[in-house]
Amino acid sequence: MAMNFEQARQNMVENQVRPWEVLDARVLDVLGRVRREDFVAPEHRQLAFADVCLPLGHGEVMMKPVLEGRLLQALELNPDDRVLEVGTGSGFFTACLAGLAGQVVSVDIHADFTHTAAQRLTAAGVGNVTLDTGDAVIGWSPTGQFDVVVLTGAVAHLPERMLAWLKPGGRLLAIRGMSPAQQVVLMTQEGPGRYREEVLLETDLPYLVHAEPPRQFVF
């Protein structure tokens, strides 16, 4: 029997995301509109709405829908916000950001992710996204500053260079710390060199390339 994707999408929103304290109407709407099944590998379409992380390749994963909802809600995106996403991945979270903000720049270190995400975003009719390929942790830098910067992979320690990418009053969201007890943190710029930090929840995601914790040698 063919899967009813529209029903599965609504079940995801109402039975997974909303009960996880995601109550922002705009966030629930975008999760109910973007066709998540079109942003996963063909062999994973039947699992597109499951409460699991889906493998993307290169050791990366697509976040669970509940976590995507919590992160989108925490960002409190405005329709005119300029957003930088570090870690394009499947392109699904990118599409959700684009549905809530004015402009999205998304960078990924893996060229095949960038290529596939571009095809998926074009097919979905998403036109306010610019994609780039580069190592945002230690090399790549964006043009200009952003209202919001969001890291979709974990970092052992937040690279300070990324804070300089924020406009005054801007917000940076990262998954930071040691697996398996990483913290989702929201940093808000409150003045030159001053940031207010809020810990939102705990989760566990693969690290961005070059953002892993240093190896521990045992003698």
Key terms:
5 helices; single chain; 219 residues; alpha/beta
Task: Summarize the helix and strand pattern as letters.
Answer: HHEEHEHEHEEEEE
For the record, give the distance between the C-alpha atoms at the N and C termini, rounded to a whole number.
Answer: 56 Å
Spatial sequence of strands, sheet with the most strands: 5-4-3-6-7-8-9
Task: Find the structural class using helix and strand composition.
Answer: alpha/beta
**Beta-strand percentage range:** 25-35%
Tally the helices: what do you get? 5
Radius of gyration: 17 Å
Describe the sheet with the most strands.
7 strands, mixed
Oligomer: single chain
Name the shape in a single word: globular
Percent of residues in helices: 25-40%
Number of strands: 9
Rounded mean pLDDT is 96
Given as residue ranges, the uncertain stretches (5+ residues, pLDDT < 50) are none
Tell me briefly what this model is:
This protein has five helices and nine strands; from the N terminus they run ααββαβαβαβββββ. With 219 residues, it is an alpha/beta fold. The chain has a seven-stranded mixed sheet, covered by helices on one side.
Any overview of this molecule?
The protein is of the alpha/beta class and 219 residues long. It has helices at residues 5-17, 25-33, 65-75, 92-100, 111-123, and strands spanning 54-57, 60-62, 82-86, 103-108, 129-133, 146-155, 166-176, 182-191, 194-203. A 7-stranded mixed sheet has the order 5-4-3-6-7-8-9, covered by helices on one side. The chain is globular and about 55 Å long.
